[in-house]
Amino acid sequence: MSNIPETGRTPRVQIRLVVIQVLVFSLLFTLGGRLWYLQIRQGKEYTDEAKNNHVQQVVQPAVRGSILDARGVPLADNETRLVVSASRTELLKMKDDGKAVLTRLAGVLGMKPKEVMDKVRLCDAKTPQPCWNGSPFQPIPVTDEATTQQALQIRERAEDFPGITAEPTAVRRYTAPGGARTAQVLGYLSPVTDEEIEKAKDSDSPFLRSDMVGRSGLERTYDKALRGKAGVTRYEVDNLGRVLGEAESDPGRPGSTVVTSIDARVQAVAEYELHQAMKTVRKETDKITGRPYEADAGAVVVMESKTGRVVAMASQPDYDPNAWVGGISAKEYAKLTGKNSNYPLLNRAIQGQAPAGSIFKVVSASAAVRAGYPFDGRYNCSSSYSLGGRSFANFESKGHGPISLGDALKFSCNTVFYALGHQEWQKDGGLKPKKNAHDWFYRTAHEFGLGSETGIDLPNEVTGRIPDRHWKQRFWQANKDSWCKQGKKGGTYVEQIAYESCLEGNQLKAFDSINYAIGQGDVLVTPIQMATAYAAISNGGTLHRPTIGKAIISPDGRRIEEIKPRASGRLPVDARTISNLDKGLRSVVEPGGTAAWRFGGWPQDKIPMRAKTGTAQVYGKQTTSWFATYTDDFTIVMTISQGGTGSGASGPAVRNIYDALYGLDDAGNQDIKRALLPQPQKTLPRIQPDGTIEAPAVKPYDPESQKVDPAQQGDGEPQLAGPPPVWRD
Fold first, then answer.
1. How many whole angstroms separate alpha carbon 199 and alpha carbon 50?
2. What's the mean per-residue pLDDT of the chain?
């Protein structure tokens, strides 16, 4: 008799069936749970994503706002050009990554295939310019100078140029009115990067992948206002890409207009005169080195004395900011950034640092008064000053006997300031400084605004350097190991210096202090810092934060946000000292002063001029020329690296800028009709009801128009009453 159940299933078979049933029900339960999760729990999210998969966005870039000068003349605006762009996304779908298409495109555009391919490659640390540093999903401009015929060829033969577009687009333009390029002040644009998009996504001004952003200058400072808001139109499409309807869209908004305090006419003069001054001095021989002056770089700042507004700012060498529009070529990029370029992208008015030379003496004179030395006291202006067996000479070793601090400015007497700096160093304890050391010379410089940023509304300003005891200690700690490794007792000059610096580089020595008192040694200043300081002397003591932006005007012209001048502090001296400084600086341009030979015929009774010349020595280089000046209205500071003396190299150019401002000829006669800016511009440009702004024409600067008939002039340099100057600092 069999023990098999009637069902014919053994216990083992039944167990297997149960296991299979459990597995089937588990799978069904898991599948049901997943369906519930996808359709109910996350249903809305996936529905939205599914909808988005059928929505295409079309971005209309906002028209970037203009940058205007103080009278409404465009310094940067936009023009419509035919722009040919390539889509990397489409090109990479092709078997050859689009090389054939780009080669055909190069033929149409008259470019080399490699040039086109380089423009559409992505930038990274190893890829040189030109390359694309924007989003890889954004159409990449190949050229913004396509002709109508080239654009028609591309559009009519679309099958030969997949992924290529040719459309009219608003493109940035830097107009250079009257020849005023204003390059480093304006800056330039380039595409937004993925990193910037991510960083700004939660801000009140997020980026779109199509955005161009300011990289330097005013384009960067006021980028948010200038950029506006791009319009985004969303279209519902089916899986074949056919448009089914228009979805929700975001309207665009043009960028605002930025009005500056720059006067394009004065800017043109400043750029021309700086360039000419450098060309002229290169023809002269440096008596110290026996070779022509290199005059490799320079800067000039023209500022309103009472407000700190910048009327003109020029830096040499400069460049054409239009080179960046539509993508920069490899050749142009190398010219701007290569080792032999001398770095024209630098704005040397705010980024160029050099010892101040004798224009620093207004700081030292102020420090002396604060330390208890009377301004009208008598100080020995000897031909040299001795310290530790070394002799420090006056310029050209001339002496003037006992003189006041005002005359020390007039004659630019080094030995007066050597002695004052040395005496104060001794009072403060010398090599063993007192705990309560006054350090008047160093404190005063800091309170003049030196050694820190002025706060001008331009990016990347540098601080300069005031080498006080704290700086000496920090500098020694940072460099001690290197000095100790390089130094050698009894070695070469450089090795001995390194050896001494290793042992006692943190000590503020007597030599440091006397050198510092005439703006030499480790002192570093920028032209904008010195312009701010001299403007403060002019206006009675107020240090202003320099500004270039004057107002931001909405696209319709209805909202105007004025950028008012802001004080950043006061000079650390009383009104009497400021008045004495003013008198001393006025004497510099009068008979016997170091700048008198450059201001012959100046109408001193009508337009009082004050000035200070400076010639700074830089180790391993030719001397740096400085010229700091001011009237009641304007302050002008110019510097030329490796250019020689202050009055010799920079003096004529500064005089010519003033002549253009006030409409003066060489004899000091004023023609107010020729005056570019006899007084600071106070009003904003006139805005029309439709938001447009009236822009007067700007003629190119003609230096000859500022001169009188040569037949009416005497021979050579202007003749001065009294004895000729004994030196030209």
1. 27
2. 88
User: What residue has token string 């002549």?
Assistant: 659
- What Rg value do the Cα atoms of the chain yield, rounded? 34
* Total count of residues recorded for the chain: 729
> Parallel, antiparallel, or unpaired for β 297-304 and 634-641?
antiparallel
Count CB atoms within 10 A of the CB of residue 389.
5
pLDDT in the model for residue 240: 56
Contacting residues for 553 by C-beta, under 8 A, at least 6 apart = 256, 257, 258, 259, 559, 560, 561, 684, 687, 693
pLDDT at 22 over 80: no
Residue 323: both structure tokens together? 């080179």
Rounded to whole angstroms, how far apart are CA atoms 590 and 597? 9
Burial 656-690 (b: 16+ CB within 10 A, else e): bbbbbbbbbbbebebeeeeebbeebbeebbebeee
Query: Which residue's structure tokens are 């604060």?
Result: 370
Cα 18 to the center of its chain, rounded Å: 81
Quote the CA–CA distance of 267 and 1 in Å, as a whole number. Answer: 120
Q: Which residue has the tokens 């002008």?
A: 636
Q: How far is CA 531 from its chain centroid?
A: 16
- Distance, CA of 133 to CA of 130 (rounded, Å): 9
Encoded tokens for 96 = 């050859």
Read off the pTM.
0.84
pLDDT digits 0-9 by tens, 161-190: 999 999 888 889 999 999 999 999 999 998
- Give the pLDDT confidence score for residue 722 in this predicted structure: 34
d(CA 439, CA 429): 10
What percent of the chain has pLDDT above 70? 90
Q: 282 or 706, which is more confident?
A: 282
Contact 538, 562 (CB under 8 A): no
CB 107 within 8 A of CB 114: no
Lowest mean pLDDT among 44-53, 97-106, 310-319, 568-577: 44-53
Produce one character per residue of 402-411: b if its CB has 16 or more CB atoms within 10 Å, e if not: ebbbbbbbbb
Tokens 């969303």 sit on residue: 234
Residue that has been written with the tokens 């890889």 in this structure: 136
User: To which H or E segment does residue 144 belong?
Assistant: none
Query: How many Å apart are CA 366 and CA 369, to the nearest integer?
Result: 5
Retrieve residue 565's tokens. Answer: 């001048």
Is the bond leading into 317 cis (omega within 30 degrees of zero)? yes
Percent share of the chain, pLDDT over 90: 66
CA distances from 532 to 567, 571, 644 (A): 11, 11, 24
What does the block give as tokens for 643? 């250019």
Place 237 in a pLDDT band, splitting at 50, 70 and 90.
low
Highest-confidence segment of 46-60, 183-197, 654-668: 654-668
> What are the backbone dihedrals phi and psi of residue 451, each rounded to the nearest 5 degrees, phi first?
85, 10
Q: Chain-centre distance of CA 556, in angstroms?
A: 30
Using one digit for the tens of pLDDT, what is the confidence trace for 486-523? 999 989 988 999 999 999 999 999 999 999 999 999 99
User: How does strand 67-68 pair with strand 257-260?
Assistant: parallel
Quick one: pLDDT band at residue 727, thresholds 50, 70, 90?
very low
Following DSSP, what letter does each residue of 677-718 receive, concatenated? Answer: -SS---SPPPBPTTS-B-----PPP-GGGGS--GGGS-SSSP
Class of residue 571 by CB neighbours under 10 A (exposed 0-12, middle 13-18, buried 19+): buried
